[in-house]
Design a protein that fits this description.
Layout lengths: L4 E6 L5 E3 L19 H11 L7 E3 L5 E5 L3 E7 L4 E3 L2 E3 L5 E3 L5 E3 L8 E5 L30 E3 L22 E7 L8 H9 L2 E3 L7 E5 L14 E2 L4 E3 L7 E3 L6 E2 L3 E5 L4 H5 L6 E6 L4
Parallel strand pairs: 12-20
Antiparallel strand pairs: 1-4, 1-11, 2-3, 3-10, 4-9, 5-8, 5-10, 6-7, 6-9, 12-19, 13-14, 13-20, 14-17, 15-18, 16-17, 16-19
Organism: Streptomyces canarius
Keywords: ATP-binding, Hydrolase, Nucleotide-binding
InterPro entries: CT_A_B (IPR003778), Cyclophilin-like_dom_sf (IPR029000), PxpC (IPR052708)
Length: about 290
């Protein structure tokens, strides 16, 4: 039994292992996966001295609790939340030493949705196709954490950052998503094409790692029937039969038969990972590059 390990005491609503994902396998039907907020994941890795591709934990809404078998350095970022070590308050957004056997508690998010927990050395579960990421759609990678799960850790790669705290973006009060129209905007009426970038939408509680679902006006089709399945990309705004746009996130399917009315700029997707249900959403059109 190695002492370089974490024991999951409380798994929370949904805690998964994530890294940069597995891009480049869409032709095999394998989604990209990876951290929904890659900027937050990279930052907490930097705070503990890990390389940016080290695997971290991604929590959802109510955090998790972990007990290391040896003394480790951790950092918690992403969604703001209380952090405690051995029952005592600890820093969020900064390196924290957790002695062997002490309980690290990552509390419920006070804003946003997903917190990220980096541990010096990274989570060293077995990689699949070059990534340790949990993919909820394909089932690749480790299963979502459950109470009692033991996670192996790698050897620390470098010293933690010498900071008292690192600035991080606030979760969005309004989610503004820049979109490039198409490729299937001609499947919708002129009114629908106008509505998607002028009407009010909100984040649906049915959102998950596969897609951010919206509530708002239904977009009317100009064509009947369905498309043959075609390739889907990260950020695609697909419109299912109910007419409400869905923004594809990291665990999205690699193909789909519903028309894509627009595609969100990749730079805007980390904010989507932190948008709570009910958050207003605006799709802002931009020119094709």
């Amino acid at each position: 039994m190695t002492d370089r390990a974490l024991v999951v005491v409380r798994a929370g609503a949904l805690t998964t292992v994530q890294d940069r994902g597995r891009p480049g396998y869409a032709h095999l039907g394998v989604p990209r996966s990876g951290a929904l907020d890659p900027l937050a994941a990279a930052l907490v890795n930097r705070l503990v001295g890990n390389p940016p591709d080290a695997a971290v934990l991604e929590t959802t809404l109510n955090g998790c609790a972990l007990r290391p078998r040896s003394t480790v350095t951790v950092a918690v970022g992403g969604a703001p939340c209380p952090v405690a070590v051995g029952g005592r308050p600890a820093a969020w957004g900064a390196p924290v030493v957790v002695p062997a056997g002490e309980l690290l508690e990552v509390g419920a998010a006070t804003a946003g949705v997903r917190a990220y927990v980096a541990v010096g050395g990274g989570v060293a579960v077995e990689p699949v196709l070059g990534s340790r990421a949990t993919d909820l759609l394909s089932g690749l990678g480790p299963a979502p954490l459950t109470d009692g799960t033991v996670l192996p850790l790698g050897a620390p790669a470098g010293p933690p950052a010498r900071v008292d705290g690192a600035p991080q973006p606030c979760p969005p009060a309004e989610l503004v998503l820049r979109v490039t129209p198409g490729p299937r905007d001609d499947w919708f009426t002129a009114r629908a094409v106008r509505d998607v970038t002028t009407r009010a939408y909100r984040v649906s509680a049915a959102s998950n790692r596969i897609g951010l679902r919206t509530e708002g006006p239904a977009l009317e089709r100009a064509r009947t029937g369905e498309l043959p399945s075609e390739g889907m990309v990260l950020g695609a705004v697909q419109v299912p039969p109910d007419g409400r746009p869905v923004v594809f996130l990291a665990d999205h399917p690699t193909t789909g038969g519903y028309p894509v009315i627009a595609v969100v700029r990749a730079a805007d997707l980390p904010a989507a990972a932190q948008a709570l249900p009910g958050t207003p959403v605006r799709f802002v059109p931009v020119r094709r590059r």
